[in-house]
Amino acid sequence: MSKTSINWIIATCIVAIGVTIYIVNGVINETSSSYTANSSNSSNQSRNSYSSNNDYSYSKPNTVKSSAYKGNQLTNGSSPFDGCFGSGVYSGNATLTIKNGSSSDAIVCLYSVSHGRTIRNEYVQKNSSFRMDKIAQGYYKIRVFYGNDWNPTLTNSCGTKGNFESNVSFSEFDGQQYFEDSYDGYTMATVTLYAVANGNASTSRINQSDFFSN
Predict the structure, then answer these.
(1) DSSP secondary structure string, 30-41?
(2) Is the pTM of this model over 0.90?
């Protein structure tokens, strides 16, 4: 075999080996790139899913709902806490007129010192007046439960249904109020449920356990 033929064979082999190496490298690079891309996409998808789940877990729905009982009131003279205090005592001639000039409805209670319990509970709407009549002679404490948005399904402190949803507070007129009912006459008292200049009755805040206690 001539020297020229041998050189041609060697050159052909070198070219073939080079082409083979090039193809193999291309396949390896393509596989590597594809894996990296898939790995990157999988990682991104995982992060996105986690972020999405995280956002969902911590997103708080709008819990502020308009109450079905917004602005709801009982009629003046209603006694919503008879289930707490028992039926009212109506035996006498004395009267108590309640003028509610506050921004809240009120439930006015008469606590009888002689009976040792609340004997009347009367609802008085804001910006209105109501006269509590048939009050027997004796000493009383006057307690007031203020609030708005009367909800008949809401449980109150004594365990029965019916309570205010908003602007809740409790107060008591200081001291004991005496109501006379005798041959000499009977008391016709008036109280106003807001601070007035030169008023003759002061009040103090109480907690709801005091209000509902007997």
Answers:
(1) HHHHHHHHHHHH
(2) no
